[in-house]
Please model this.
Amino acid sequence: MPQFELANWPGQIFWLLITFAVLYGVLSRVFIPRIRHAIDTRRGQIAGDMAEARRLRDEAEAQAEIADAQMAEGRLRAQHLAADAKAKSAADSANRQAALETELSGKLDEAETRIRASRDQAMSQVRGIASDTGAAITEKLSGKAVDARELDRAMLDVAAPAGA
Model:
């Protein structure tokens, strides 16, 4: 076997060093910078997606706070309407008082129904935003489209209390 003859070793070592140097140069100058650029790009994209998710979460929380404030304002208005109507009806006769209280009760129920509808609408938007954000992040990270049922199941798992 010629590779084991001592006379051939200097030439083999020379070509080994040349081959190693060429491979090292190509890897360090061409491939490793490209890989590093891809990793940095991906890291930046993930950071951007996470920032967008945080922004959407903060926006959803702000919308929930607005909905809470609107509910409190609606309750306050309903309470003011009820108190005013009760003060007026106290001066009237007993029959008129009963009729006005019935009317106010209906208005209060209607106001609470509108408040509940506003809250439910706001909360449904929060769930939709969270679902869209989760689907977008999952698709960006994995490169695959997310099944809607899996996403709903995951959102229910996150929304459920830890002890339940």
About this structure: Residues 60 and 126 are 6 Å apart (CA to CA). The chain has three helices and no strands. The radius of gyration is 35 Å. The chain has a mean pLDDT of 86.
